[in-house]
């Protein structure tokens, strides 16, 4: 009997040890605490930001952590309020794509004082010392790429610009384009309008330039939604000559139009999947006290009819 008693005692001890380990792992070990992430993008009325967020969400879910996502719909006041709400939910990391580059700074300083990590994605803030890390595309080069391609295709051009003056990413793209053509008198900027990067605002913005009887044959757009609005405006107005459009993003809609139409010449492609992956990767590095870069720049590449076959036109790259 003593043999069986000893065996039963050993089994009991083993089971008890397993239970103790289970309780420790799930309830006492702070390493298994769910991490809370908050994201707010300038607008979710753009599949680009949905693609960025999907990459972040996939990784967060795989870690068993929590993601709260907010949409300020291009309202800087609303974005400030959403950030405060995310802080009240106990987030550990704030991932922000700012509606405006400077109006958010005061709120972000409060977030930083609360010990919350801040990662800025796609569009930088005016005071980059506030952010723990900034992850952006090479926006300036995106504009340079479009300008260089235009100059190779056309001996001269009169150019209209569709801008978003309060988003630094958009400003960098426009500046890249303008700086590239600045020293060549064959290429003239003849008009510009702000459209917040939105399709529905780009159409009337270009209409306004047309109504001023400004003659142009190229439109450089800060992003692809703007390029769609520009195309709608060109179709709506009988200008009597061809107008060629450049965008920035590499969105599925524009890639299809690059392949199938004459008007959309090219788009300098961003990779929202890469931006999302880099953002969440650096977030976990921060939380696990690993080394990380404070600035991450993801390259862009021009997509035109000559290389469109290298890309999947049904999705983002």
UniProtKB/TrEMBL annotation:
Domain named Periplasmic binding protein: residues: 39-291
Residues that span the membrane, as ranges: 7-27
Key words of the record: Membrane, Signal, Transmembrane, Transmembrane helix
Gene3D superfamilies, alphabetized: 3.40.50.2300
Pfam families linked to this entry: Peripla_BP_4
Subcellular location as annotated: Cell envelope
Taxonomy, superkingdom: Bacteria
Family, similarity comment: Belongs to the bacterial solute-binding protein 2 family.
Protein name stated in the entry: Sugar ABC transporter substrate-binding protein
Organism: [Clostridium] ammoniilyticum
């Amino acid at each position: 009997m003593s043999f069986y008693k000893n065996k039963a005692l050993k089994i009991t001890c083993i089971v008890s040890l397993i239970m103790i380990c289970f309780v420790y792992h799930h309830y006492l070990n702070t390493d298994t605490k769910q991490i809370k992430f908050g994201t707010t993008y300038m607008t979710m009325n753009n599949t680009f930001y949905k693609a960025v967020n999907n990459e972040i969400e996939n990784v967060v879910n795989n870690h068993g952590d929590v993601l709260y996502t907010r949409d300020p719909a291009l309202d800087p006041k609303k974005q400030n309020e959403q950030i405060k709400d995310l802080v009240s939910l106990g987030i550990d990391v704030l991932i922000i794509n700012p509606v405006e580059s400077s109006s958010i700074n005061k709120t972000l300083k409060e977030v930083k004082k609360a010990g919350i990590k801040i990662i800025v994605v796609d569009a930088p803030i005016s005071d980059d010392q506030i952010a723990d890390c900034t992850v952006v595309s090479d926006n300036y080069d995106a504009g340079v790429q479009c300008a260089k391609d235009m100059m190779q295709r056309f001996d001269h051009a009169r150019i209209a610009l569709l801008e978003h003056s309060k988003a630094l990413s958009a400003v960098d793209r426009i500046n890249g384009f303008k700086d590239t053509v600045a020293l060549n008198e064959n290429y003239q900027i003849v008009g510009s309008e702000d459209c917040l990067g939105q399709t529905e605002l780009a159409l009337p913005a270009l209409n306004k330039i047309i109504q001023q009887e400004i003659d142009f044959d190229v439109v450089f757009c800060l992003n692809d939604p703007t390029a769609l609005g520009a195309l709608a405006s060109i179709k709506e107005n009988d200008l009597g000559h061809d107008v060629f459009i450049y965008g920035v993003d590499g969105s599925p809609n524009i890639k299809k139009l690059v392949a199938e139409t004459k008007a959309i010449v090219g788009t300098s492609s961003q990779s929202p999947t890469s931006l999302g992956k880099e953002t969440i990767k650096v977030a976990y590095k921060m939380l696990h006290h690993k080394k990380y870069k404070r600035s991450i720049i993801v390259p862009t590449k021009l997509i035109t009819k000559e290389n469109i076959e290298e890309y999947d036109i049904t999705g983002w790259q």
